Amino acid sequence: MPELPEVETARRGIEPHVAGRVLAGAVVREPRLRWPVPHDLDVQLRGRCVAGLTRRGKYILCDLGDTHLLLHLGMSGSLAVVDADAPPRKHDHVDVLLGDGRALRLHDPRRFGAVLLVPGVPEHHPLLRGLGPEPLDPCWDGQSLWRDTRGRSAAIKTVIMDAHTVVGVGNIYASEALFRAGIRPGTAAQRLTRPACTRLVAAIRETLEEALAAGGSSLRDYVQANGDLGCFQLEHRVYGRAGQPCLVCGSEIRLARMGQRSTFWCPACQR
Question: Model-level pTM?
């Protein structure tokens, strides 16, 4: 599933082609995504100017003035700017027409993505209202994480993947950040000390920033807006390396299921 680095890479990739455009409408080939695509999307988008693109968690928001177009990549989605008359591939479900002969095209094989209109202030929308802080925001720090983990007996990996705690830290980057911080994924969140929380916040930020620089991780369906693969998977220290030697100490990387997700860690480096 695309996580924060992949979504932010997608936003940065499409922004130069979309921001400032006066939209010519939309083509909806398959409205049955995670939530139904608005039946009047074509009419609603016609003539609207895209003031800019932002990201909140794993959602991309196109500012249309009094409303926003909300895009989500779901489990396997990707966005690309293509010629509007380019023949659609299978699973090319929605085109946003950019008014210059091109289109922003959503490709979503599993149909868990979203194309929605959000009137008014986007932060008030139910999908965005309860989201936690952005991990790359300097205002989110070790003290914030320490406070939010008090009284929580759940595993720390599960807690940092909870979007109410912090947004965008999915399975890959949770495993990688916990390794860098030297914290075992199954540790009860409430047991983390203030210094451990500070280390973990720094590790999350460092991991995400490095992944952004690498264009994200391409493990299954994810590609960047220009069609290139991300390459951060080449830098994974524990994720996907079960049974292989730790790159730091040589111990065998372990694998377990935690919260129905694959979890990787080094038993020697993470305590």
Answer: 0.89
Question: What's the CA gap between 251 and 50, in Å, rounded?
Answer: 51
**Contacts of 260 by beta carbon, 8 Å cutoff, 6+ apart:** none
Q: Quick one: DSSP state of residue 232?
A: G
**Confidence (pLDDT) at 224:** 45
Backbone φ, ψ for residue 173 (5° rounding): -75, -25
pLDDT tens per residue across span 64-123: 999 999 999 998 899 999 999 999 999 999 999 999 999 999 999 999 999 999 999 999
Q: Which residues pair with 254 in a beta bridge?
A: 265
Of 132, 16, 131, 116, residue with least CA distance to 61? 116
In order of start, what are the domains of the chain with their CATH numbers? 4-129 (3.20.190.10), 142-265 (1.10.8.50)
How many Å is the Cα radius of gyration of the chain? 20
Are 214 and 232 a contacting pair, CB within 8 Å?
yes
Count of other CB atoms within 10 angstroms of residue 83:
10
Residues acting as catalytic residues: 2-3, 58, 261
Pair 268, 251: CB distance under 8 Å: yes
**C-alpha dihedral sign at 123, 126, 130, 131:** negative
